[in-house]
Structures
1.
Amino acid sequence: MSRRTTAGGLAIATALTLATLPAASVAAEQVSVRFPSAKFPLGTRPVPTKTMTTVAQGIDLYDVKAGTSTDGYTVTVLMPNGRDSGTLPKAEAKVAEVEAIGETPTLQKVVRPSVADAPSVTEYMVRVGLWSLKDKKKADEMAKKLKDAGLKVKVDYLGDDGVKTTGPWNVKVAMIDAGSFRGSYAASLGTSVAARETVSSMTKAAGALLGVNGGFFNIHTAKELRGEPVGASVVAGKLLSEAVPGRSAVVLKGRTAKITELKTTVTAASQDGEKAPVNGVNRAAATDEMVLYTEEYGANTPTGGTDAVIDANGKVIGLRASGAAVAKGTRVLHGNGVAADWINQHAWQDWTVTIDTKVVDLRTKRAIKLTPDLHVIAGGVGLVRNGKVKITAKLDGHDSMNMILRRHPRTLLGVSKNGSLILATIDGRQPGVTVGANFHEAAQFMRWLGARNAINLDGGGSTTMVVGNKPVNRPSDGGERPVGDALLVLPK
């Protein structure tokens, strides 16, 4: 990778590519989960400092620090679509705009590395200037000058780029040994599906020993509904959000954890023999959709349709205009358009409507029994499968340059060969303190820790690990962000 180096010793990449990381050494026969003795797997492989605390029997918490800060700041000129990078002609046009106002830009080639389900992509960035970590004010001044000249720009910390860096990294790792842990795992959506809640609140309410944020939640729906998980959610054997078919998830049962891909199907069957697919569970309904709402939803059903209120035995208590709450002990089958027509024709008062719910493990092709000890949390992106890096960014809906290449805070979950659970948070977006990780780095890091299978949960400002009802990491928002769901480690 070529670089232009200033007299001050800082370097700015003229070609952004992902360095090959060293392979992790995982013991062939692992009788218990242990923190690795090998050097830290990222950057120049520095020797990390670590402090271990025993949370409970079988749960060890590691505070890990590695690397030093050598990155500085630059100003990135945004493309016409507002993105950091674009095609060569668009980038060259931005170079000309910067030169026209008397500044000297740098044209950088950006290579988004390939992943298991998407090829590499090459784009170009335009950047102006280079300043040390302590001179961010000068970068801000340059950004203002460029903005005043009519350019859209932003100040970038080079440690976030996703290319070679010296760090630093601040990491929390919880290793839960399958042989000695005597508690269990659970998912929590907090007080309701619709609302968001902090991990510490959910952890405290459940009396959990430890908790981490769960999967992605829907930020593209109405504000009061944004706690809704994007993907499968099962709490105590009850499906509370449908799967996005094929996306990664973690299945928790008792003190076992398994990473797989899921498919869910929900079908409404009337006593007259007619059946209809239920398109979603506890989310906003699109045109002509039928959606099931449970008492855990915590919001009114959508307006502009028909609701069939169903009791615990499947009996239709009555039909109503939609837009009301879901009463305790009931479910509501909501439909609009053609789905409302089906309800009006086949869900009459005092009739029975059976709701058949199936969760299928796509790796084994078998249905998973919805027992009270079953919990499911949707993952963000698959990282490691059967001991090898396998990043399913496209299948999981996160194959952008920003998600694959750039570094962000990460919440990671892995399962070792002997079934031990590994939870990790890599803090980021804190220049000079911690740089986060990109997908390839996150995958390599989990392999280094001993994960045979691993996924990326929600990250960014959501990344949180709670022990003793308080965050033990440093969320990048500056405080704990309310999230959609959480994975909890319970004492029993």
2.
Amino acid sequence: MTSEYVTFGLAPAMRAGGVLADGAYQTQREFLDFVVDGRPLLARLADLDAVSPLAADIGPSALAEQVRRLLLETEPAPEGSRFVLYGCPECEGPECGAVTAVIERDGPDVVWRDFVRQTGGIPDIERDGYHALGPYRFHGEQYRTALKGLLTADGALAPGIPDGPRALLIGPRAAVLAKLAAALRRIGIGAEITLDAAGAHADELRKYGAVVFGRTVGQDERDAVRDAFAAARCDAVCVTALAPIVPLLVAQVVQALDRTPHDRRRLLGLTAVAGGAEAVVEVAATCRVALAAHRLDRLSRPRTRELFDAVLDPGTHHIPLDLRALRGRSYLVARTNEAVRVTPVER
């Protein structure tokens, strides 16, 4: 088998969670993506909503087993040497579809080839194959070093997999913060509510990736909390709740938890043109982008409306908006499979 060598690595990645416009919950997943020749492999699959088997929430023993499978140290699956590289973020069943590939040794090297979208049984490579992917030939030593770095000497899981995300909510345990905490937990983000975090132990503060200030929290209280996190050497992102709209607040938290390096992001920016006539969306690579509008009506009831959902090519896109969905104080949320961006609409 002939193919040029490419580099292999691993990088933290996120499947963005959220409360969607139709009320459905989308689970937040933290995982390690495969980096092939300097680019995340998942980014080459523009419209695929999936996670790798190296996910933070499947348990240490199961995760270590997945690493050993990729190292070809365990028995192959019954159908041969085909391995799951990406699966459904919401379940473990094959019915939703998975991306699989043949992984095999070729002398000292490791080769990934014949990538397909598989829902069960023996796949049809011609019909379901990703013909633009692979084959990829990795130097065996580099490949094994990257994966073995996730295991200890006795084969157990070593530090390196992203921890589950957590957010700290500051303010009275009122209805909005309580609903926000419940929604975050529903999508897989740990959430706690407290009136004052300024006196918390540094080790506890370091567990959080985002801090949300309720709208009633004063500036002095916010400054004290920021100082406490800074003293704990914690890089948690502090955000102020934009409006008492739970899906919008969840989007703010998900955006704050995003630690993806800028050069590996597909969704780079979201702004709303003054007056709300159009949204400006900047993407770095082909991906599916959905836009939703959030606002409060005259009776302070939250309203959500889907405005746009399509695959966008790299570049800056000007998307016309329906002004009827943006009456009063309103907000836009842009979503891809792995990222969320929030912006207010200035009228």
3.
Amino acid sequence: MGATEPTPRRAVVIEDDADIASLLQVALASQGFEVTIAPDGVTGIERVAALDPDLVTLDVGLPGIDGLEVCRRIRPTTDAYVIMVTAYGEEIDRLIGLETGADDYLTKPISVRELKARVNVLFRRPWRLRVVPGSAGPPADHVVLRHGDLVVDVDAHRVWRDGEQVDLTPTEFSLLATLMRAPTRVWTRALLLEEVWGGGWDETHLVEVHMGNLRRKLGDRRGQARFVENVRGVGYRMLAAG
């Protein structure tokens, strides 16, 4: 019997501009993705639900339901990496996109070289957080990190707080796992950027936005950190477990 062919990674391109959609399709296909195009937000939501993709590129300026709302709707149901695409080039649009659960962003006009580089960085991380209904915790043979009432199953990429599962995006999981592997270390934003996103980046606001999302999901509040501490002017570390 011959070797089983690997299942191709799937991508959904949600983009109403046919030329840009075609550019993205060709670029992602050259990286081994099986690409499906959705011309609007409603169709995009349906195709993400049907195809369970590994990657979604999502235009902010879609007609009808815009990309930010699409991201809000798909993020609770998919563990795909999400790259927002914006024509505006304004930081506020990128930050809002990250706050809604996107992992990264690109600004039009799109550079195919930059797209490929960012996709490669995303897929170098451990990923695919799978929710298993009814599971009470990690299997005995998995690598597990514990910090007080916080439990991270490294092998399954799942997190529990006080016995309840916490749904994280792949980027949020990577940040938390990095912190928990060295819980007494203070991680600067630059170091986290290099560790999670790879070298050659200088956009530390990526760390700040995703870290803010992570801390909210863990139950941390401003001035009332329980798990992750903001070391003013330096970076972040795990708060000493009580």
4.
Amino acid sequence: MVLGAFCALVTLLKPPPDRPGAGTLLTCSEAHVRTIGQHRDEIAALVAPVLAGRRVPDCLQAHAVQDLATGAGAGRGHRELGRAVATPVALPPFDNSQMDGFAVRASDAGRELRVVEPIAAGVVPPSLEPGTAAPIMTGARIPLGADAVFPVESTSPGAFPAALALERVTVPDDLVVGTFVRATGTDLPLGGELAPAGASVTPALLGTLAAAGVTSVDLVRRLRVLVVSTGTELQGVGDATIGDANGIALQSALAEVGVESRTVRVPDEESTFLAALDDAVGDWADLVLTTGGISAGAYEVVRQALEPRGLAVTPVAMQPGGPQAFGSVEFAGRPVPVVSFPGNPVSALVSFEVFLRPLLAADAGVPDDRSAQVLPAAEPTTSPEGKHQVRRGRVEDGRVHFVGGPSSHLLAHYAAATHLVHVPVGTAAVAPGDPLTVWSLR
């Protein structure tokens, strides 16, 4: 189950039934801070209509079967049929032999027959004359007049090509009509449904489509996400320039769950920011994912530009990734869902793993590779008691080793980690041997 790891995390956050509110440890002044579970539910509700909307007829996209088979233009992840596909031919399209043998009339059982010219696959054979048997290869068309096949193993040579030298053969006594004949339409009749809408595009389905002569199918198009990296420093000069780690990292993370994406970098200036987003969203983006610009300080361009337009800035009891925002905002004359993550790269990636990846992976049918397990800590650490801390780590010798500290700028340490390590709300200190939930990242 794709959401299994996340459900395990949410379970950690639930208060015991006899202690309402236990597990959050929020003071009255912190009551506006959301739990991870609350924010996850809000994001799911925001994104759900967009995911469903891609399945309407106007949003479907035609793809060549050959391209899907080779991966050209298909991208990574699961693909889904948008419309049912009916076969334009019966499958198989003609009666053919199930094995190497001799095509005969079943009424000639027990008789010795004269052997005529062999029938290879891919040819239209002449009608079978009475009193004759035609050597036939697997998959070859059954000639008119024949209604059964007996295997070449029933002859003294026992195999082709040696049995092609036989001048006469004896038909087995127990042969009946239809023996070793693949009848026309026994897989699917003409016009039968090859696959329903919503079917996964698998190798077997692609093979079936090719066998039926179907060259193109309509697929549910991929979700299209505009990744917005904010910060004048991304467009700075000389030593003031910082590389756009968030844009690249999130595009890669989105691709892993079958999502198409584009990036745009915008400065910390409100009018420029809004104009750039109107242009980039256009009629293309289904969802806008921003990073940075949602804290409480100055130059918080996402908050300043979008909060008056419907973006809800909602701190979450999580470290890293405390600042969060979401909402439906109008761009290019239409409402578009917006999910906003913090700007520090570790915060952005952790936020994606916790809030968006489970939803998008489930929608795309991507297998759940974020397997969760509970393992003992190898070393001590501390955690803010009122927050759910997500640390980076490695699992060695069955124990959890932390990689780097909790700071949200330590992207190189994240890259070196193999697991996300969850320290639940209400935990101020972790001692060696304490059980911790970990998610595999690889």
